[in-house]
Design brief:
Low-confidence stretches: 251-255
Pfam family, one: IPK
Radius of gyration: 19 Å
Protein name: Kinase
Keywords: Kinase, Transferase
Shape: globular
Helix content: 25-40%
CATH class: Alpha Beta
InterPro entries: IPK, IPK_sf
Bound molecules: adenosine-5'-triphosphate, magnesium ion
Oligomer: single chain
GO molecular function, one term: inositol-1,4,5,6-tetrakisphosphate 3-kinase activity
CATH topology: D-amino Acid Aminotransferase, Chain A, domain 1
C-alpha cells in the first residue's frame, strides 16, 4: 500500500482511488457487489461464441485481482477491499476524459433502500437520465479555456487540468445535450481533421458496444461509459493518425515491459463502475442501458452528418 498514491485523473465519482508508481493500475475501493461482478466476469468463458464478436469483457478494464487493506489501527474496525484494474489512461500523455452514466433507472430494485430510491428517481426525472437514458457525470480536460460558468468547473493549477463537475451534466437538457457532447470533443488544440475522426471512431465503438450488449444478460444500474482521447497532437503524428477502434487484446501484456499496445492507443471507450451490476442469465439484454446508448448513437450520427 505504501507504494500507491492518489489517482488524480478521475472525471467523476468518489475519492479514495489509488494508482501505483508507474500508473499502470487503478485501485478502486469497492463493496461486495462490484467484487462479485468482476470475479464472475473473469469466470466467464473468454470471448463470445463467435470469435469475431466482441464480448462484454472486451469493454471492461482488465481485472487483475483484489487487494485488501487491513485496518491495523483498529480505528475503522473494518478492512477496505480494492479491485485492482488496468489503468485505462495508460499510454496517454494528455488525455481528455468524460464519464457518462447510463440508464433511466439508476437503482437496482433488489438492493436499493427506500430513501435512496426516492432520491435517485428524482435525479433521473430532473436530468437527461430520465429523458435520454444517459447523463454526463463529469469531464476532465487538459489546458483549455472555455466559456463555461465558473460554478461548473475547477482548474488544477499544478497539472493545468480542468474538471467539469456533475452539476454541469445535471443541468443539461434534451435541447442542449448535443452541444455538451460537442464541447468535450472541441476542447483541445488538435487539428479539425482529428476531431472529426475521433467523433466518427466513437460512433463506431458505440455501435459495436450496442451489439455486444444486445447479446449480454446483465443489469448494470448506474454504470458509466468512459470516453478517453489523446489531446497531444505529437502522439497522433507519431502514430500516423492510426486510431484503432478497439485496442488489441492486451491481457497478457498488462504487466509486461512491452508497451506496444498502450503506445498505440489514441482514444478508447469503456464500461466502468459495477457497484450495482449483476449477471442475469436467461433474462435478456439490459434495455435500461441500451436506451441510453441508442440516444448517444443518434447524437454522434447527427454530428457525423454535420461534418460531411
Ligand atoms: N480502470 C480505470 N482506469 C482509469 N480511470 C478509471 C478507471 N475506472 C474508473 N476510472 C475513473 O474514476 C472515476 C470513478 O470511477 P467509478 O465510476 O468506478 O467510481 P464511483 O463513481 O466513485 O463509484 P461508486 O458508484 O462505486 O461509488 C471515473 O469517472 C473515471 O474517470
Ligand atoms: Mg461512477
Amino acid at each position: 500500500m505504501e507504494n500507491l498514491h492518489k489517482f488524480e485523473h478521475q472525471a467523476a465519482g468518489h475519492e479514495g482511488t489509488l494508482t501505483d508508481e508507474d500508473e499502470y493500475l487503478f485501485f478502486k475501493p469497492v463493496l461486495k457487489q462490484e467484487i462479485d461482478f468482476y470475479s464472475n466476469l473473469n469466470n466467464q468463458l473468454a470471448g463470445s461464441v463467435d470469435d469475431n464478436e466482441l464480448s462484454l469483457k472486451d469493454w471492461i478494464p482488465k481485472y487483475i485481482g483484489l487487494l485488501t487493506e487491513n485496518d491495523t489501527t483498529g480505528l475503522k474496525k473494518e478492512n477496505i477491499n480494492y479491485v485492482v484494474l488496468e489503468n485505462l489512461l495508460r499510454g496517454f500523455r494528455k488525455p481528455n476524459i468524460m464519464d457518462i452514466k447510463l440508464g433511466k433507472i439508476l437503482y437496482d430494485e433488489q438492493t436499493v433502500t427506500l430513501g435512496k430510491k426516492e432520491r435517485l428517481i428524482k435525479v433521473s426525472n430532473d436530468t437527461t437520465s430520465g429523458s435520454l437514458g444517459f447523463r454526463i457525470c463529469g469531464m476532465r480536460v487538459y489546458n483549455y479555456s472555455t466559456e463555461l460558468d465558473h460554478s461548473y468547473m475547477e482548474l488544477d493549477e499544478d497539472t493545468n487540468y480542468i474538471t467539469i463537475n456533475k452539476f454541469y451534466g445535471r443541468s443539461r437538457t434534451i435541447d442542449n445535450i448535443d452541444e455538451a457532447i460537442d464541447l468535450f470533443f472541441s476542447m483541445s488544440n488538435l487539428d479539425e481533421k482529428i476531431k472529426h475522426k475521433l467523433a466518427a471512431n466513437f460512433l463506431s465503438r458505440l455501435q459495436l458496444l450496442y451489439n455486444t450488449l444486445l447479446d449480454s444478460e446483465v443489469r448494470m444500474y448506474s454504470s458509466s461509459l468512459l470516453f478517453i482521447y489523446e489531446t497531444d497532437q505529437s502522439r497522433w503524428e507519431f502514430l500516423d493518425y492510426q486510431d484503432d477502434i478497439i485496442p488489441d487484446d492486451i491481457e497478457d501484456e498488462i504487466l509486461d515491459e512491452d508497451e506496444t499496445t498502450y503506445c498505440k492507443t489514441l482514444s478508447r471507450l469503456n464500461l466502468i463502475d459495477f457497484a450495482h451490476s449483476r449477471f442475469t442469465p436467461g433474462e435478456g439484454p439490459d434495455e435500461n442501458v441500451l436506451v441510453g446508448i441508442e440516444n448517444l448513437i443518434r447524437i454522434f450520427e447527427k454530428e457525423k452528418n454535420c461534418n460531411k
